[in-house]
Design brief:
This protein is of the alpha+beta class. The protein has one domain: Cathepsin B, Chain A. It is 31% helix and 21% strand. It has six helices and seven strands. It has a seven-stranded mixed beta sheet, with helices on both faces. The two termini are 29 Å apart.
């Protein structure tokens, strides 16, 4: 990591500043940068940082960034991270969204990042990731990088693709979301969120807090 870290850092901002991803495959790094900026770890998100993160974790078989890579990168900056899965093995593929070689490569890359995290990333599997679960974590003060299923062509094959968004609050009956592929923050109802986070590989939430916070 060669980007600039704030000296003496960890002076949290009052609000998360929106950051727009520069490509259709860097939603994960964009979410990371918004959190590093919010927690006062970097001075300001920049394109060079976005691509440095992406290139550090990319794999040939999948254009995006897997949840374990997201979590590991955040723990390297001292943040507390827990990954919650609905699937028992972390990533489901019962619907055949990925070709078998792609799926196995993604599973291997996912486990590799967990191994490299050396116990700093907690994983909780077969978790019911519902709107109530998200609200509970937000109420406890955590931020959530959530995997969603949206229209798009990030991989050039599927009409709908996996996409990371940053869920940062819940007010007046709507979730407050930073979608880095959009120009501004979004408000999403419970009903729409349930559909939004239903993906062909199961549901996944990367729950993030300051060092010392326990995500259970």
């Amino acid at each position: 990591m060669c980007y600039i870290i704030v000296k003496g850092g960890n002076h949290m901002r009052k609000k998360i500043r929106h950051y727009h991803q520069s490509s259709n495959k860097t939603c994960g790094p964009a979410c990371i940068l918004m959190l590093l900026d919010y927690y006062g770890i970097i001075t300001y998100p920049k394109r060079a940082m976005e691509w440095e993160i992406y290139n550090a974790y990319k794999i040939e078989e999948y254009p995006g960034m897997n949840g374990a890579a997201l979590a590991r990168h955040l723990t390297r900056h001292g943040l507390a991270v827990t990954i919650y899965h609905s699937a028992e093995n972390g990533l489901d593929n019962e619907d055949g969204y990925f070709k078998e070689n792609e799926y196995q490569a993604l599973l291997a890359a996912y486990q590799e990042q967990l191994d490299k995290a050396k116990g700093k990333v907690r994983t909780i599997r077969t978790q019911d990731i519902s709107c109530d679960f998200l609200k509970e974590k937000l109420k406890e003060g955590f931020k959530i990088i959530l995997e969603c299923f949206v229209d798009g062509d990030a991989d050039g094959i599927h009409e709908k693709v996996l996409h990371w968004v940053l869920v940062y609050g819940y007010e007046e009956g709507t979730f407050r979301v930073h979608n880095s592929s959009a120009d501004q923050r979004m408000m999403i109802s419970d009903e729409d969120m349930e559909e939004y986070m239903e993906t062909p590989i199961g549901r996944m939430a990367v729950v993030v807090g300051k060092a010392g916070e326990v995500n259970i």
